[in-house]
């Protein structure tokens, strides 16, 4: 019985607390409406004290924007530039992408808005996605020394995850840096002179540091396409491969023989470089963004060391496998989240030509 009473008491407490929050929100909305009525009636002096209790604790983000916008207009009419500046900064903290409009706002507010910005200096991002890795053969190397060996490379699916930071030089241009982990893989099929088929599956684990630049097209407010490109340093910290031999000259059938998974770390170039290009689009969610992008990395480094796998202790001894000299490219598709680090601040240089242009367009 005591257990049920405890549950009932908890439910009543929960309901009471939520009712209190709802009542407070309703009360603050009423207070904001009353302050707006005072403003429209030309009584400006009492507005700050009317709004203070809810500003300190009670307004939602949207209500804070409206409240400080009202205060900014009141301080402008009261000829209090410091109060107007401080209030407009709070407008931008509540909504960093607020823009005053000549068709909606008083002209003094529009001119004041041109002295401030909340544009982010830095943005943080995180992403995840899939990839595949086409191989570019630099030189074909055959362990048997025969000329009629046929090689065929096929890509296999991989995945990647990472994060990055954008340094915004302007609203459109940003310098970017990322730290990414990627798992990639490819398969090599080799038809040998005696009709045997060798399949070699290679799997790589990478840490990459892409450095580049990004250009964003400000076509629509919610959807913002962009292009980017740059140079990447790719550290190959793990490479494992497995060889399967299908012997087709055994009677009428075939005999498959598979190797254990070998480590190819000692046969690989650890530090590789690549050029990358990509396109993407950001979709605005509140004051942050979701994004999707496609990227192509063109490998610049021969991944296989010149010593290759001919050594006496290498896999080629038992299974007859040898690596071609090759570069590993990569095509990836990722989705992610961008968190702009908005910074409301006063501008050192003010541009007001757009205000006059907006007024003229409105008059037309």
Topology:
Blueprint: H1 2-40, H2 47-56, H3 61-77, H4 81-94, H5 107-113, E1 116-117, E2 122-132, E3 135-139, E4 150-168, E5 173-191, E6 197-216, E7 223-250, E8 253-258, E9 262-263, E10 271-285, E11 288-299, H6 316-319, E12 325-328, E13 330-341, E14 345-346, H7 353-363
Antiparallel strand pairs: 1-14, 2-4, 2-13, 3-12, 4-5, 5-6, 6-7, 7-8, 7-9, 7-10, 10-11, 11-13
Shape: rod-shaped
Structural class: alpha+beta
Separate helix tally: 7
Strand order of the largest sheet: 2-4-5-6-7-10-11-13
> What count of domains describes the coordinates?
2
Helical fraction equals 25-40%
What is the count of β-strands?
A: 14
**First-last Cα distance:** 76 Å
SSE run = HHHHHEEEEEEEEEEEHEEEH
User: What CATH architecture label of the largest domain applies?
Assistant: Beta Barrel
State the name of the first-level CATH class of the largest domain: Mainly Beta
Q: Main β-sheet, in a few words?
A: 8 strands, antiparallel, barrel
CATH topology of the largest domain: Porin
Mean pLDDT: 85
**Percentage of β-strand residues:** 35-45%
Radius of gyration: 32 Å
Low-confidence stretches are 3-9, 11-24
